[in-house]
Amino acid sequence: MHKKLIQSREEHIAVWGLGTIGFSSMVYFAQQGVRVVGYDVDSHRVETINDGKVPVDGMSSWLEADVSALVASGLLRATNIIDDVLSPHSIVHLIGVPTERGGIPHSEIVSEVVYRIATSVTSGEHAVPPVVIVESTMIPGTSEDILAPLCEELGLRVGKDIHIAASPRRDWFKDGGYFLRGLDRVFGGLTPQCSKVTREVLEIVCDKLHQASAIKIAEITKVVENAYRFIEISLANQLSLGFPELNMVEVLNLAATKWNMGHFHPSLGPGGHCVPVAPRHLLMAATTPSELSLIERAVSGRLRVADDVLKDVLAIQPQSVLVLGLSYRADVKMAVLSASIPLAQGFADSGVGVICFDPYFSAHEVRALVKGSIAGSQDDLGRPQVVVLCTDHAEFLSSEFIQSIVDINPMLVVDNTGRWESVAWSNTTHY
Predict the structure, then answer these.
(1) What is d(CA 343, CA 349) in angstroms, rounded to the nearest whole number?
(2) Whole-angstrom distance, CA of residue 107 vs CA of residue 284
C-alpha cells in the first residue's frame, strides 16, 4: 500500500537531514517519480536545494542528476518548516541525521526525530501507518532500546500504528558505479510487518535487498563493515611505523595483487562520518567490550601517524607550514574527523605560521576549522618552508598547481597521498 500511494503521488516521502545521505535519498526517489520533501535546520542548504542546486560541494560529479529539473517538476522540495514533513501526507520518513558528535556516537537527534514523527501519528490522520527508515548509522540496539519505547509511551503499537526499520546506507561517493540502485543493501524492521513495508519502499530505488532477521542485526552489520575497514587502515599505518626503513606503500601495493587482499595506503589517519566512529559504536554496544582489544588499540592510535608527522616537522623548527586539503576525501567538501585538521591545529598551537588551503572551503570556514591559521588561496600560498599534501584533490594534482609548489622550493614536502612521488623536486627540497 505504501509503495502504491507514493508512486501515485497521492502521498509523499519525508527526508530528515539533507547532507550527503539525506539529499541523495531525495534525488534517488524523485528520479523514480516519487514526491519528496526534505527537512533541514540549515536555511542556506534549504535555499540551495530549492534553487535547483546540489548543497554539498563536489557531490554533483557522482550524483549524476538534474536537480533543477526535479525541483521544477515539483517532485523535490526542501524546507526548514517542521510541520511540512510532519504532514499526514508523509507516510514514509527517511532519517539521515548526524549520529556522532566529535567522533562519539550519540542517539539524541534520531530519538528526537522519531518522537516528533510518532507524536504526529497520534492524530490518526495518516492514510496508512507511516514507516520510519533510519538510514544513519546507529549504536546497535538503538531501535529496540530507545525508539520502540518512545512510540509505545505515546500509545502506538510498533508494526501496526507505526513501522520502524534500520537500513544504513553503504554508498561510496568517491568512485563511479557505487550507487544505490546496484548496491547490496541490508535492512531490518522491528517486526515482520515493519520489514515487509520497508522492502516495498526500498525496492523502488534498490535492486539488491537483504533482509536481516532482526533490526539489531541490520544496525550492527554496517558498524562491523566499517570497523573492519578501520582495523585494516590502522594496520597499514602501524606497518609504516613498524618498518620505517621500508617503502611500505610499495609493499602494500604488491600485497594488493593477491586475489583476496584489499588495497591500503598508509595515511595520516582514517576520517569521515562512518569509519572512525564505527569502532566506538561496537565498544558502546558490546556485551563484553573488553574482548574487543584490537578495536580498543586501533581507536587509541587513530591519529598516531599525524602525531608523528607533527613531531617530526616541528623538529626542524619551520617558521611556516602550508597544509593542503582539509577534507578527508578527495574532491568533496567533507571535513568530519579529518586527520589533517588536528595536524594543522597542532602546528598553529605550536606557534608555527600555518597556511591552510582547500578549494572546497571558504576563508571563513578554514579559520573556523583551524584556529589561528591563515586561509590561503591558489593565487597566494606564500613561501612556506614545509608543504603537507593531505588530500589528493584534483586541483592539487594539476601540473600548474604542482609547478607552483615546486617554484616555492620548500625544504620539506610531506605527501600523505603518494600522488606527488614522481614530481621533479629541486635538490634542496626533501620529499
Answers:
(1) 10
(2) 12
Using the structure block, give the residue that is written with the C-alpha cell 516495498: 200
Residue identified by cell 503499537 is: 157
Residue 40 and residue 2 in contact, taking contact as beta carbons nearer than 8 Å: no
Residue 407: count of CB within 10 angstroms of its CB: 9
- Can you list the alpha helix ranges (DSSP code H) found in 243-378? 248-255, 278-285, 293-300, 304-315, 340-349, 363-369
CB atoms within 10 A of CB 155: 10
From residue 17, alpha-carbon distances to 28, 88, 255, 301, 430 in Å are 15, 19, 40, 31, 45
- Cell matching residue 156: 502506538
Reported in sequence order, the residue ranges of 234-376 that DSSP labels E, i.e. its strands, are 320-324, 353-357, 374-375
Q: Output the pTM of the full model.
A: 0.91
Which one, of 405, 401, 361, lies nearest residue 382 by Cα?
405
Per DSSP, the chain holds a count of helices (H) and strands (E) of: 19, 15
Report the C-alpha gap between 202 and 117 in whole angstroms.
Answer: 19
Beta strands at 386-389 and 374-375: parallel, antiparallel or unpaired: unpaired
Q: Which residues fall within 8 angstroms of residue 89, CB to CB, at 6 or more apart?
A: 10, 11, 12, 127
| In contact, 80 and 117? CB cutoff 8 Å | no
Which DSSP letter does residue 113 get? H
CB 162 within 8 A of CB 115: no
Q: For strand 90-95 and strand 386-389, is the pairing parallel, antiparallel, or unpaired?
A: unpaired
Q: 304, 234 in Cβ contact below 8 A?
A: no
Give the integer Cα–Cα distance in Å for 272 and 262.
Answer: 19
Q: How far apart are CA 299 and CA 231, in angstroms?
A: 9
Residue 401 contacts by C-beta under 8 Å, 6 or more apart in sequence? 378, 395
What is the rounded distance in angstroms from the CA atom of residue 285 to the CA atom of residue 88?
35
Grid cell for residue 430: 626533501
Segment (H or E) for 77: strand 76-79
pLDDT means over runs of 10, the chain (431 residues) = 86 94 94 96 96 86 85 96 94 95 92 97 90 96 97 96 95 65 93 97 96 97 95 94 93 95 92 90 94 93 94 95 94 91 96 95 94 85 93 95 95 95 94 95
At residue 34, what is the residue type?
A: V
DSSP-assigned states of every residue in 11-44: SEEEEE--SHHHHHHHHHHHTTT--EEEE-S-HH
**Residue 85 per-residue DSSP state:** H
Q: Which residues make beta-bridge pairs with 320?
A: 353
Taking the C-alpha atoms of residue 411 and residue 316, their distance in angstroms, rounded to an integer, is 10
